[in-house]
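A further point concerns the way the authors explain their paired sequence and structure data. Showing the layout once, in full, would remove most of the difficulty. For illustration, here is how one protein appears when written out as sequence plus structure tokens:
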Amino acid sequence: MATKLPKTDVVVVGVGWGGGIIASELTKAGLNVVGLERGKERKTEDYYMVHDELRYVLRYEMFQDLSRETITFRGNEKIRALPMRSYGSFLLGDGLGGAGVHWNGMTFRFLPYDFQIKTQTIERYGKKKIPDGMTIQDWGITYDELEPYFLKFEKMAGIGGEENPLGGKRSEKYPTPPMQVSPVMKLFSDACKGLKYHPYIMPSANLSEQYTNPDGIARAACQYCGFCERFGCEYGAKADPVVTVLPVAKNTGKFELRTHSNVRRILHKGGKATGVMYIDTTTGEEYEQPADIVVMTSYVFNNTRLLLLSNMGKPYDSKTGTGVIGRNYAYQVEAAAGVGFFEKKEFNLFSGAGAMAMTMDDFNGDNFDHKDLNFIHGGSISYSQGGNRPIQNNTVPPGTPGWGKDFKAASIKYANRNVSVWAEGSCMPYRHHFLDLDTTYKDEFGDPLIRITFDFEERDREMVKFMGAKCGEILKEMGADKVVAYTEQGPYEITHYQSTHNTGGVIMGDSPDTSAVNNYLQMWDFDNCFVVGASAFAHNGGYNPTGTMGALSYRAAEGIIKYHKKPGSLV
């Protein structure tokens, strides 16, 4: 029997970027917040002098233990889903700060087109441009409505960058200058300009200079050590929840953090959430935490899974296309890329930062004419100098022997003479792509695992062919002596790392028939339950999702404060 604890104003499930922002904003407004995090506590001191690629990159130090809980996957409904037993396609964060600790720091605003994708696609190309089975929809909010929240996230995190010449309008400049421009970044920029494209320095959460944010949180500048992705930052220069929003929440005296607390159910009665049931994984004891408001802020898969396990919202049915929980799962198309090999130029590729990059959006969103193309949307094209660490970087030209004298010679020669240009491709939702509960496999507590049904579509193959050719074109303009362009997209392969940019499952919109939450991320069916995260994305854009997720989190926080003062639907 679960031990019932004293009631709180708000309980937050998952303390990463979403949970940290919600906790910070609500406690500043005077609400009492309990944050439940199933992983361990973290602090900057944990990463002092820990540049250990083997431990963090190859042995997955910061990620979820797949032997205790994982996901199952199938390419379509005709085959049996199997558990993901080792990491590959994406990485599931674990511990305080979640994936917000081990990210690279690339921080974009989705394009205005993304938020009204169905309306604008039909207006420009007609209804026939959207293929049968593609379930794109408008998000129930516009870029202009979300712009102030983008700015709030950027000021909190100290984002630095140049204004995107093809992006949505900004009300203010970035709060900090962009990162340094390396020689290869300049080559990329010059090549893009030579091709009449519009490059700009990528927005970065790696601080270019010392910065104090509006909450009074001071952080040091990036040292360009190259240990960002899959690592915590030993300098605190990379914005993450542990060094930005969580100290603010703790300093109010109204935030109680409980780590090692695995939430198994959202409790509800009469159309209202009443709290959550969780297990203290250090003792095995069960607890009930009552709350006036429940806020789901865990990762995409867990947000969807907990709602399904708790019988909240109508589960999605791919056969009828009805229901909302699990609907519009989308991943990201990362296969379009090119590698250039230089014979006469050598670069310092071992210095860098997670978001030290140059990018351009000429082929993102609807910034180009799709009339004669067999896909909609597109992606950003970038060169990123993240810092080539010693173990996993050994790029040699095709045809090089896989071992022996010639392999060693080519490895040494091209160690600092290879440059990759890549496309971050959008991913559209389809009726037969969804999340649901697995009917066979369970976690350590006996609860069904979340199941992914997904594969790449013809639209994705056409986009990869197009974007890969553009990557190769840019590398040739950069002066590479040998260019390899990757223009073919095979079936989705869960064993190969691509990105951790999963979206959908609890999507936002303007109708309870086709969305689970409104534009404050408030559930239609349970008005005191908010579901925050990239699970709200109705499709995935041509960018990393964190900036857009952060903006939606700030808007949700505003909505929760309004709801606390006057309960009811916010739209």
Notes: The chain has one domain: 3-565.
